[in-house]
Design goal:
Blueprint lengths: L3 H13 L1 H9 L6 E4 L5 H6 L1 H12 L5 E7 L8 E9 L2 H8 L2 H15 L6 H6 L1 H7 L1 H13 L22 H17 L2 H5 L1 H5 L8 E6 L10 E4 H6 L6 E5 L14 E5 L17 E5 L4 H13 L4 E2 L4 H11 L17 H12 L12 H14 L1
Parallel strand pairs: 6-7, 6-8, 8-9
Antiparallel strand pairs: 1-3, 2-3, 4-5, 4-7
Helix pairs in contact: 6-9, 9-10
Amino acid sequence: MKTPEALRHKLRRQWQNGKLREQRLLDYNAWPVTLPIGKPSPALISSEISAVRKHIELWRKVTAGEIDWQPVNYRSVAEAVQLPLNWVLHSTDEWIEAMADEAIRQEYRLLSIVMADSDPLFYPLLIRQRQQLLSRGAEETIKACEVALQLAPGCAEGKPLRALSIAGCDSKFFERNRTLVGKLLEQRFGQQIIDRGLEFFLGALDESEHWLLVVPLETGLLPFRQLRVRSSELAQTPLPGSHLLIVENERSLYQLPSLPNTIAILGAGLNLSWMQAAWIRNKNIAYWGDIDTWGLSMLATARSYQAALTPLLMDEEAFEYCCNEKAVAEPVTAGESTPSKLTKQEEALYLRLCRSERGRLEQEFLPDDLVKNEITRWHALA
């Protein structure tokens, strides 16, 4: 036998399930919902009838939804006992009432206000992302939906996001709501928002882009020994040479050998969208990053832009070479799921690093001779 409070607890846990919450709030066919209450055993009827009476009384006090009462016969009593066998809820309103939880009532009221003034296209996202809604409030969330409906690919025409005056939003609007607006645009236009970035999709000036370190590995290939270039300019400006070496961290500059017709670009980190530039496809490309989950994730991103690139020193052999002495813990991993665009061997290494207590080997801790030999070998083979 389940008490009303036990089933209320179950209903509250169901509310926390985003997929189930979305289904019940949007799909009329999800109702009614029937929760079995159960019935007392014959032994309980004969030995603890007072407990059964208390159980029945608790269910008689329940006013939310519909209680399915049915007569049940027992040998130990002369007449059939009217018992609550099922709790039936016919709508979202009844579900909210049945949970008897003030915080959930407040969530539902806020969600109802936002959905009443938003396009149905955004309903699934708003229901799934309710924590963002709670942190922002109804007015700001409704404004984000309104802005997302008016944005279009390339509409910024080179202006920064803060300069876009859409639906009466202020200059700090995108700073406050960047993530939410991006997700709303994904509902309209698909995964390309994540893949290419909000500024790229809208044609806005990326004020957050950082400068990359460009270093010729052959004297005279560029008029400078080193220079810094914004990623947006790098994407539009072809570099000389036949070989391009992309390095995750600037700190590894001292490990690079001198190589003819080769330019190294260091310090890109997660900022790799410039690799989509058409001029890069004509180069022999190598990528070298840390051996950790983030490094392999960046390798996967780089490969999604340039499928023919060669990864350097980012395999099981390189990790084994000095992991006992140099590997450290990775405080936050890039996620338990392997990124797409990794090879089977790289996927296996990624999962190993996720499970390892010391799953991070930073590239500057690899022996200099090993690094120089591997980069030189790539250059010769390419």
